[in-house]
Amino acid sequence: MGARGTVVLSPRALNRALLSRQLLLGRVDLGVSEATEHLFGLNAQDPDLAYFALWNRLERFAIQDLTGAIERGVLVRSTMMRATQHLMSAADFRLVRPVLAPLLRRVQRNAFGGRTTGVDLVELVADAAELLDGGVLTRPELGRALARTRPGADAQALGWTVQYLLALVHPAPSGTWGKRGATPFAVFPGVPETATADDVRELIRRYLAAFGPATVADARTWSGVSGLREVFEQLRPELRTYTDEAGRELFDLPDHEIPSPDVPAPVRLLAEFDATLLAHADRTRVMTEPIRRQVCQGAAVAATVLVDGTVAATWTKDRTGALTVVPLRSISSTDREAIEAEALRLLEFAAPDAVHDVRFSE
User: Which InterPro entries would you find in this protein's record (predicted)?
Assistant: First the structure.
């Protein structure tokens, strides 16, 4: 117990709580839409990442399961948390996008403000919405169309600006397995321009359900949204609080239990940018600081191997069907066998027609 009887959670207890919320203590029987809502979004910087995320978490998952949900518009891909590409349910997009609007406006100013000096941004967004009314244009196509009525304007900056300022999604086939290329834009209807206070509070509840217990700084790191301390204070009467070993206050939903630190955690091969590694300011619940510096370099976040719930290695896959594991700490022979077995299952999922080979790079 900590001060005033507050329960102190060890890094291992926080690790097991996170793995439980993220469906990484055992694969579960959920549909892709239900799982995506439970996880409160999937990173989709590359189209394949969301597929790997669900493969790691669901008992029965096939590529077409997720592709079909994206094609039907049940799940949508857009610029969201931390101004990066995520896949969310249509309902969650309507909740999250207005809350993120101030962040996305700030990103636009920082990245493209100088290149859009003199451009009326309100008018730009209105023109973009008209151009996209009932149709789809790629970002380059939209930028060029907007530049035609703005002589001397930077077409590329116009396209990117609209991506941040208008509630757009990237419709299929964009975001589906193996599909890359110019980003298509479509206007998503029914998204409020501004969030209500209830919206922001609901975003925090959903974050805690997927990643708690967590600090205010953790929620800010995950979302990129500022001003959350006041929101947590508003929610305090309905939340449960803990303390970590560094004395930081952690918040959680009262009906979410903390698993025993002794619960076994299976080997998992997480793809790049998996939210498990990015949802907290304090990442020691999943990796040590020296390992974090090897996994997170600049804007890149490597694909990782979890052993006993924490990062033990990185992995890469080539087009021939070979998967290479690079240990970041000592790994026992038993754990190597478990990693190899899981890696072969991943290759069977991702490249069923290739000759599969798992290698360890010393």
Answer: AlkZ-like
Q: How far apart are CA 111 and CA 144, in angstroms?
A: 19
Domain that holds residue 77: 31-187
Residues 178, 285, single domain; the answer is: no
- Burial label for 292, CB within 10 Å (0-12, 13-18, 19+), is middle
> Looking at the domain assignment, is residue 101 inside a domain?
yes
Pairing state between β 310-317 and 300-301: unpaired
Give dist(CA 55, CA 32) in Å, integer: 10
Within 8 A by CB and 6+ apart from 243, the residues are 2, 3, 6, 7, 8, 9, 249, 250
Check whether residue 57 and residue 158 sit in a common domain: yes
pTM: 0.94
Digit-coded pLDDT (tens) for 117-158: 999 999 999 999 999 998 999 999 999 999 999 999 999 999
CB atoms within 10 A of CB 274: 24
Q: What is the pLDDT of residue 6?
A: 82
**Separation in Å, CA 28 to CA 14, 259, 333:** 21, 16, 28
On the CB side of 199, how many CA atoms lie within 13 Å of its CA?
18
**Contacts (Cβ under 8 Å, ≥6 apart) of 308:** 265, 335
Strands 137-138 vs 8-9: parallel, antiparallel or unpaired:
unpaired
Query: What amino acid is encoded at 352 in this protein?
Result: P
**55 and 145 in a common domain:** yes
Which one of 170, 187, 204 terminates a domain? 187
| Per-residue pLDDT tens over the stretch 278-324 | 999 999 999 999 999 999 999 899 999 999 999 999 999 998 889 99
Name the domain boundary from 187, 218, 239.
Answer: 187
Q: What's the token pair of residue 104?
A: 């996305």
Digit-coded pLDDT (tens) for 30-48: 999 999 999 999 999 999 9
Nearest to 84 by CA among 40, 43, 36: 43
Interatomic CA distance for residues 147 and 267, integer angstroms = 51
Distance CA 160, CA 153 (A): 13
Q: Which two tokens stand for residue 58?
A: 């669901």
